[in-house]
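Appendix B. Extra example for self-study. Work through it before the problem class; the solution is given directly after the inputs so you can check yourself.
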Amino acid sequence: NAGVMQNPRHLVRRRGQEARLRCSPMKGHSHVYWYRQLPEEGLKFMVYLQKENIIDESGMPKERFSAEFPKEGPSILRIQQVVRGDSAAYFCASSPRTSTGSGNTIYFGEGSWLTVV
Amino acid sequence: GESVGLHLPTLSVQEGDNSIINCAYSNSASDYFIWYKQESGKGPQFIIDIRSNMDKRQGQRVTVLLNKTVKHLSLQIAATQPGDSAVYFCAESFQGAQKLVFGQGTRLTINP
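Solution. Structure tokens for the complete assembly:
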């Protein structure tokens, strides 16, 4: 069973460039989440998507960041005009159904480490 | 609650001893809690979860205790092994919410 797949695992970008991070959820999962982790900190929620819909983007920065989960293909987290402060690990997670409160476990990928130089 | 940019708390234990990792959560409305293990350079790995209608749940070598009165969660690891070395995070959520709120994390190191 393939888990949540993320690529690239490591990405280096110069300031001002664009970063695209991809995530394929676990088989049978239609809910995708993106989290960001700075060194020595816990994960911070960014956005929650279902196929073709953004459900909750309350954790997304207002500018330069966007996310999509098209009908076909992986979910994409896009960061435009990257700055050094964007350097972090970006984790994708998926679940089979909505509402973590009902006990639907969220499974995480291995992350994409973005370094902005 | 929300983590801050401080060095992670560290717990050092002898191999074979039991470990207890604690977590204070922030939202009294939270009704679902998860413990994750994160090794260096890897993603969070699910360990065990518990709902708010329970106060204890056991897995293989792990036990989670929930005290809603003081908003406290703990993870007990029995007979700690070198492979248990990692950072452990608690996370909380509440009914209808679509996101997890992670705690600060605790680094567990195992002494041989």
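Self-check: The longest strand of chain A covers residues 43-50. If your reasoning did not lead you there, revisit section 3.
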